[in-house]
Amino acid sequence: MTTSNPKSVEAIIWRDGRLLLLDQRILPEQEVYLTYDSAEGVAGAIKDMVVRGAPAIGISAAYGVVLAARACFAADGDQWKTTIADKIQVLADSRPTAVNLFWALDNMQKAINHLSDQNDPEAVLLVEAIRIHESDIAANRTMGEFGAEIIAQSNDAGRSVMTHCNTGALATGGVGTALGVIRTAFEKGYIDHVHADETRPWFQGSRLTAWELMREGIPVSLNVEGAAAHVMRTQDISWVIVGADRITANGDVANKIGTYNLAVLAMHHGVRFMVVAPTSTIDMSLACGEDIVIEERDPEEVVCYKGLRVAPEGVEVFNPVFDVTPADLIDVIVTEKGIVERPDAEKMRALMSKDRLH
Ligand code: MRU
């Protein structure tokens, strides 16, 4: 399976019955694919951030279910539909915030429900996992076009944009969500420069986004997060463009910690704020952002970097890795089904309505 841009990296590859994940913990120094042949292994890879980014987590988990089905059918025969439940739960427990994980597992469970107990499930479940993977690639392309068109229409051609975390090929099945819009807008000549927030504590912006953009020859400057207000004031930024891990029924957006800061700053500086996410990131079962479980990770991520201590021994740490941007700070949400300007509950309902033609 390939993305539309040959220079774009592939984070997730299914080959010869096994899952290959590009180890994002050691980029940009080393490009190493790790191989997985069990659901438990895939769950560990998600937890440890070998693979990260909401859509990429969902796609990987879908392939994890294929591996689980193979193991359960081999070990338990016609009891496989019962025994696979524990393995699916292990995948579900890997990370809590990105709803794409649970969306993908739900889709795989529906496919399981349609299967008989007696027949080998692997081939049919693989078709469903590939469908999930391919639909993300297609969604990336569509969102790229929609988002670029918004930039073109807002008379911002030739100006810079700012982004946060990594939302590119590494975080998705295709060319990316926010970074997909940035790529498309750059190809069409609508933007000429990207400002990337380094994104503490895991450095997705510096290690991953800057790397992806430089590989493609898209001009990028890296800034520490504390510089964001100054960048907005001095660098002719037209849009902040970010991805999402979960969008609730009222249009609130959970994304990488620091996104909310940027939205507040953007409002003050008259910079517009765009969220780009496939509808697999929208969770209509939650009323608002306060209902989202925000993952907190190991304090070591904050006090140490590559074994070097950057804080005193014993310091107390609060390490939430996502925050919630309220809908009223968002100018537009771009999905593959269409765009929602100034999101609210009514507009989100209309977007997600089964009656919508798309
Ligand atoms: O902790 P991570 O690296 O998985 O967080 C990723 C993000 O917050 C991304 O912005 C989000 O998943 C959207 S990616 C298309």
UniProtKB/TrEMBL annotation:
Active-site residues (renumbered): 245 (proton donor)
Pathway this chain belongs to: Amino-acid biosynthesis; L-methionine biosynthesis via salvage pathway; L-methionine from S-methyl-5-thio-alpha-D-ribose 1-phosphate: step 1/6
GO molecular function: S-methyl-5-thioribose-1-phosphate isomerase activity
Top EC class for this record: isomerase
Keywords: Amino-acid biosynthesis, Isomerase, Methionine biosynthesis
GO biological process assignments: L-methionine salvage from methylthioadenosine
Site (Transition state stabilizer): 165
InterPro entries: IF-2B-related (IPR000649), IF-M1Pi (IPR005251), IF_2B-like_C (IPR042529), Initiation_fac_2B_a/b/d (IPR011559), M1Pi_N (IPR027363), NagB/RpiA_transferase-like (IPR037171)
Binding site for substrate: 52-54, 95, 204, 255-256
EC code(s) of this entry: 5.3.1.23
UniProt entry tagged with the keyword Methyltransferase: no
Catalyzed reaction equations: 5-deoxy-alpha-D-ribose 1-phosphate = 5-deoxy-D-ribulose 1-phosphate; 5-(methylsulfanyl)-alpha-D-ribose 1-phosphate = 5-(methylsulfanyl)-D-ribulose 1-phosphate
Pfam hit, one: IF-2B
Domain of life: Bacteria
Homology family: Belongs to the EIF-2B alpha/beta/delta subunits family. MtnA subfamily.
PANTHER family tied to this protein: METHYLTHIORIBOSE-1-PHOSPHATE ISOMERASE
Function: Catalyzes the interconversion of methylthioribose-1-phosphate (MTR-1-P) into methylthioribulose-1-phosphate (MTRu-1-P). Also catalyzes the interconversion of 5-deoxyribose 1-phosphate and 5-deoxyribulose 1-phosphate. Part of a bifunctional DHAP-shunt salvage pathway for SAM by-products.
UniProt-recorded name of the protein: Methylthioribose-1-phosphate isomerase
Lineage, broadest ranks: Bacteria, Pseudomonadati, Pseudomonadota, Gammaproteobacteria, Oceanospirillales
